[in-house]
Design goal:
Length: 988
């Protein structure tokens, strides 16, 4: 049989080969990792010799390599039935049973294999590997040592010996075994990987990275790539780390299986109105940490669907940027693209200095927070303690701490202790060391929304590395997190703070498993915080700073308003014209008022109330008072206390007023303790000048106040004249049309100031003969057959740039060919309805479903007249638009035969109906646009002349989506005209 020719399919083609040739091909494919192709050839060979044990064994090996363990087991068992004394077959059965979780049967198979051939190094090695997995380490060690005695150059046996030695804590012996495996076989990548893991655990990151890179050089060694990613991320190399981190999906032991969606993975590009699914993976803490990215994703013009664990649904219910929230395990709504939460840093190109770290990005429900105020006890520091995470976590043994080890903290007086601990470890609360006086809250907590409410009533949280630490950080609550010697990647290395959470302070182990030292340092720091004094004040200031809060205690203390620095007020008055209205931001002791020139009016604002005139605003929260008729702004001794001072300058620039400002540059205050003074930023004079320019200010004049302070008068940049651009706008000729009049005003509000507009109409066609830089077809109206002329096509083709803002109607008579030609010539079509996109978009990349942008011209309001209004041709009368809108919005019920009055009524009426427009006055020839509009807004249509209830939430959502798009439209128009984006260059 072995010399006869057989017909098999090889590399996709049928061919005649001998059985040895077929087996050689299968073996070569198996060695190269192409187990599926090898399996197919073995199956074909077995058709000619179904009882051949060698071929059955080879087929089993191929199926095993392909990951089909159940089929592999069947082939091995059939082969063993034909060759019952083959020890290696029983060993293969044992290995395969272990992969299927049938461990007792696996042990029995290995016992048979050892009995058949006690001197097989492979059998002994494989059995030792299984016993290591079963934590029967001493037995495993016997078999692994025997395997090495039999064959001292058997790399797999040496590697398995290293594994069991490592589990027994004999790290140096394990390292030597792995090194011997590599000496025996320099290409044995698993030994390189295990050496990398040892070096990683020993905190030798450079050495670990070298071993992981060596292991990953095999190409498809997913675990090596994944562990290399963790090293890179821990070192802060996000650019390479997040790329390697994508290998996690190919690791068999990774706790979150990949999602098999037909929709593509999002790469960070503009979503252009598409629906994106962001889905949770791994643990609850991971979800809490990475939902911070939702705002950034929503800003890419997408509709965000967020899928999270059921325990987080209530907590994340109001997360800004989320359109739909789904519980994991339930049916998902439709979506166009998707991204796992922990792939978002890669998609959005996050680097260490661009982490979106603003907190809080989660908020506790105010009602729930109030329900837990009973926890508060006057005169005590309220501290939450969480000592354990999920026990199923792969690193839980190293991160969780028995509660009894925290007993030393109970010696700190003045602390009220609370335990928002969940999970199996919560049972320890009832047996807490008595000195802790721990209040067990676990049984009262339903989900994470309850936990968030509890944490919001605490002054401090002390937690191991678990979801509660992430939640406290996301809520901007001070949290001290206890970190094992080899930390999770997100905590980086050798730092006490976290770039992910400004309110987290990290207490790291100085040596593996040494929690006593960590808890000792926590106790000392806690005692300092409670005791107050100079050290306590420093700790209080530190907590204020890490929370990025205004130090209201400092600002409320009159002693901090130093009289020695008030000379700057007299000097500042020299920069202020007589008769000015002065808005003094950070007015302090208000000494500026004494020095103002004649005729000045003085307006005061500060973080705390100075007198009855003071407007209280917290500048670190982005709060600024109204302009209130001011003609000049002063900022004296304020900027040093602003965390995001550059953003604050941009906000002040919005006043469009001169600013008199003082600052102590870092390069002129080397002898001062800036931190002790409460200063939270440290700009040099050069950095300050750059920031003024970037905010839109010019330095009109400056003066030294003393050796440390500089005084500036800033002027807002005047508009720089740029080349004018010619814009042609085409719309319907009926100037009385309600929608066209609104579109006229709306388009004018989004065009750049350099645009010189010529208005023209489809009928009559009278286009001035000029060269236009941009042609805009439509102002939100509809196009129908009569508009699609050769003149229109020629005009659009001639223009260097063109854009369409229109819908369609009377589609049965519309010339689809001409419309297609028009769309092909447009740089972009902002289609009014989803119907338009589906009927005429045909996969064109220049088509965006914008919606009816005129919805933004109607405020959301409520009807006031309990009656019915019918809107017909009277709306074409030349009435002021605001009065027309007000009239429509007065009525409880509205019936309209015009599309935009109906759209207007959706923002106010309780019930509405429509009467279709018909071009020829017959029952045929419906415009179709009413149905399209209702589908867009409500997701369904209603019969003509049937009144239906208005879903106000749906209307508000539709309006919000379009308003978000409109915010981008000025940028888009500037881009088409070759002008700088509004406000300067923007990243896209």
């Amino acid at each position: 049989m072995r010399t006869r020719q057989i017909r098999i399919k090889l590399h996709g083609r049928w061919t005649q080969v001998t059985v040895p040739q077929a087996l050689d091909s299968a073996a070569a494919l198996h060695r190269s990792g192409q187990h599926d192709l090898a399996r197919d050839i073995y199956r074909q060979v077995l058709r000619y010799s179904p009882s051949a044990s060698d071929e059955l064994q080879a087929l089993g090996a191929a199926c095993y390599g392909f990951g089909d363990y159940a089929e592999a087991l069947g082939h091995f068992q059939r082969a063993a039935a034909r060759a019952p004394h083959n020890a290696l077959l029983h060993s293969s059965i044992g290995v395969t049973l272990s992969q299927l979780g049938r461990f007792q049967e696996a042990v029995e198979a290995f016992e048979r294999a050892v009995a058949l051939d006690p001197n097989s190094a492979e059998v002994r090695s494989n059995y030792g590997d299984l016993l290591t997995d079963l934590q029967r380490y001493e037995e495993a060690l016997v078999h692994c040592r025997r395997a090495v005695e039999i064959d001292s150059r058997f790399a797999a046996a040496l590697n398995n010996l290293g594994r069991v030695l490592e589990r027994l804590g004999r790290t140096e012996e394990a390292r030597q075994a792995y090194q011997r495996a590599l000496t025996a076989d320099p290409n044995f990548r698993l030994a390189s990987f295990n050496l990398g893991a040892l070096s990683h655990a020993a905190d030798r990151p450079q050495e670990a990275a070298r071993f992981f890179e060596e292991a990953a050089s095999a190409g498809d060694f997913a675990e090596a790539h994944y562990n290399h990613a963790l090293l890179l991320l821990r070192q802060g190399d996000f650019a390479h780390g997040f790329e390697e981190y994508e290998w996690r999906w190919r690791c068999r032991s990774f706790p979150s299986p990949p999602r098999d969606f037909p929709q593509p993975l999002w790469n960070g590009s503009d979503l252009a109105g598409r629906r994106i699914l962001l889905h949770a993976e791994q643990g609850l803490g991971d979800t809490i940490q990475f939902v911070r990215y939702v705002r950034q994703v929503a800003s890419r013009n997408g509709i965000v669907i967020l899928e999270v664990q059921p325990e987080l649904i209530t907590l994340l219910g109001g997360l800004p940027g989320v359109t739909e929230l789904a519980a994991k395990g339930r049916d998902l709504p439709p979506f166009d693209t998707h991204c796992p939460l922990l792939s978002l840093p890669r998609a959005l190109a996050t680097r260490l200095d661009t982490i979106p770290a603003a907190v809080p990005y989660l908020k506790a429900d105010p009602e729930r927070v109030r329900s837990w105020t009973r926890l508060r006890a006057p005169g005590r520091l309220h501290v939450g303690l969480v000592w354990a995470g999920n026990p199923s976590h792969s690193n839980d043994r190293k991160r969780s701490i028995p509660l009894e080890r925290f007993a030393a903290l109970g010696a700190v007086e003045g602390v009220a202790w609370f335990a928002p601990q969940k999970g199996p470890a919560a049972a320890e609360a009832s047996a807490a060391p008595g000195c802790l006086n721990l209040v067990d809250l676990g049984p009262q907590l339903g989900d994470f929304a309850d936990t968030a409410a509890v944490l919001s009533n605490l002054d401090l949280v002390i937690s191991v590395d678990t979801a509660v630490a992430h939640l406290a950080g996301a809520l901007a609550i001070p949290v001290w997190t206890l970190i094992p010697y080899t930390p999770d990647w997100r905590w980086l290395l050798e730092r006490e703070d976290s770039p992910w959470y400004p309110t987290i302070r990290l207490f790291r182990q100085a040596a593996p498993d040494d929690w006593e030292d960590v808890i000792g340092r926590v106790k000392e720091t806690l005692a300092t915080l409670v005791a107050g004094g100079a050290a306590g004040e420093a700790e209080r200031r530190r907590n204020v700073i890490i929370r990025r809060e205004t130090d209201l205690e400092r600002w409320s203390n009159p002693a901090q308003l130093e009289e020695a620095w008030t000379r700057r007020s007299a000097l500042a008055a020299d920069f202020i014209p007589a008769g000015s209205t002065v808005l003094d931001l950070g007015c302090g002791a208000m000494v500026l008022e004494r020095s103002l020139p004649p005729g000045c009016r003085y307006l005061t604002c500060d973080a705390v109330r100075r007198d009855e005139r003071t407007v209280v605003r917290d500048f670190n929260r982005g709060e600024l008072p109204p302009k209130a008729g001011a003609t000049i702004v002063t900022l004296l001794g304020v900027l040093e206390y602003i965390y995001d001072w550059k953003a604050f300058l941009r906000r002040v620039r919005e006043y469009e007023l001169p600013v008199v400002l003082s600052y102590c540059p870092a390069d002129q205050t080397g002898n001062l303790d800036r931190a002790a003074l409460g200063w939270v930023n440290h700009a040099s004079l050069e950095e300050l000048a750059d920031a003024f320019a970037q905010a839109g200010f010019s330095v009109r004049s400056s003066s030294r106040i003393d050796a440390h302070q500089v005084l500036f008068r800033l002027e807002p940049h005047t508009l720089i004249a740029r080349a004018l651009k010619k814009v042609l706008v085409l719309s319907c000729g009926n100037v009385g049309n309600f929608g066209d009049r609104l579109g006229f005003h709306l388009l004018g509000s989004v065009l750049p100031p350099q645009a010189v507009v010529t208005w023209a109409y489809f009928r009559p066609w009278r286009i001035p003969e000029e060269d236009y830089d941009l042609v805009i077809v439509g102002t939100g109206n509809s196009i129908y057959r009569a508009n699609l002329t050769d003149e229109l096509l020629a005009l659009v083709e001639k223009a260097p740039a063109s854009i369409g803002i229109f819908g369609t109607q009377y589609r049965e008579s519309l010339d689809a060919v001409k419309l297609g030609r028009l769309l092909d010539r447009l740089a972009l079509w902002l289609a009014r309805y989803e119907d338009d996109v589906l009927l005429y978009g045909h996969g064109r990349e220049n088509v965006i479903h914008m919606g009816d942008w005129l919805i933004g011209q109607f405020p959301m309001t409520r009807w006031s007249v309990d009656g019915r209004l019918t809107v017909d041709k009277w709306v074409l009368q030349d009435l002021p638009l605001d009065r027309t809108i007000q009239k429509i919005q007065q009525y409880r019920e509205v019936l309209s035969e015009r599309i935009h009055p109906l759209l207007c009524s959706l923002t106010s009426a309780e019930r509405v109906a429509y009467r279709e427009q018909r071009e020829d006055g017959s029952i045929n020839g419906r415009s179709g646009k009413f149905r399209s509009m209702l589908l867009d807004v409500f997701g369904r249509a209603y019969p003509e002349e049937m009144f239906f209830e208005v879903d106000r939430d749906a209307v508000a959502g539709y309006r919000a989506r379009i308003q978000a798009f409109l915010a981008e439209l000025p940028w888009l128009l500037c881009s088409l005209l070759g002008l700088p984006a509004p406000g300067g260059p923007v990243a896209r």
